[in-house]
Design the sequence.
């Protein structure tokens, strides 16, 4: 983590609010896959990927922990294990790929990896909580949806980085 200036903290706070609002709004949308109600496009992940790129992996780790705690308060604490497992796996995939492979791989590829691992983790948590290994049968559908969601989030993140003014993406 870099030095925490007031400007940096304010920017991370505003991004945390944005990611939380996106998550809460998206939770109001009916499930896109009825057999897996925890599967969403994950619009807040475009903000997480933005934080990884602009602020670094350390700040992004704290960011996702806070995002999950805040959104659990607004939605329901029941979603915390699903969201935390998904967020941590997505974070590890995205921060790792971005740190080691970018620009050899695109932000869309980074996002797809995060989306797929996130939904595998969420499905695994559902299996553990419900004690139903048969839930793994939905994994091919969940992963196919994850690829589409990852493309959407990757494109959004690419547009954010490309078109935001530099003064909004430089926090030295």
Sequence:
């Amino acid at each position: 983590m870099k030095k925490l200036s007031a400007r940096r903290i304010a920017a991370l706070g505003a991004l945390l609010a944005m990611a939380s609002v996106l998550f809460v709004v998206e939770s109001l949308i009916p499930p896109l896959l009825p057999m897996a109600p925890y599967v969403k496009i994950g619009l807040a992940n475009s903000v997480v990927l933005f934080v990884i790129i602009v602020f670094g992996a350390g700040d992004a780790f704290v960011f996702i922990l806070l995002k999950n705690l805040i959104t659990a308060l607004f939605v329901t604490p029941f979603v915390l294990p699903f969201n935390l497992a998904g967020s941590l796996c997505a974070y590890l995939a995205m921060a790792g790929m971005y740190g080691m492979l970018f620009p050899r791989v695109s932000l869309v590829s980074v996002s797809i990896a995060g989306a797929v691992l996130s939904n595998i983790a969420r499905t695994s948590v559902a299996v553990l909580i419900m004690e139903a290994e048969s839930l793994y049968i939905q994994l091919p559908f969940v992963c196919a949806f994850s690829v589409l969601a990852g493309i959407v989030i990757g494109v959004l993140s690419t547009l954010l980085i490309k078109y935001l003014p530099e003064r909004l993406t430089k926090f030295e």
Q: What stands out?
A: The first helix runs from residue 6 to 27. Helices lie at 6-27, 44-55, 57-74, 80-101, 107-130, 139-163. Residues 6-164 form a domain with the Arp2/3 complex 21 kDa subunit ARPC3 fold (CATH 1.10.1760.20). DSSP finds six helices and no strands in the chain.
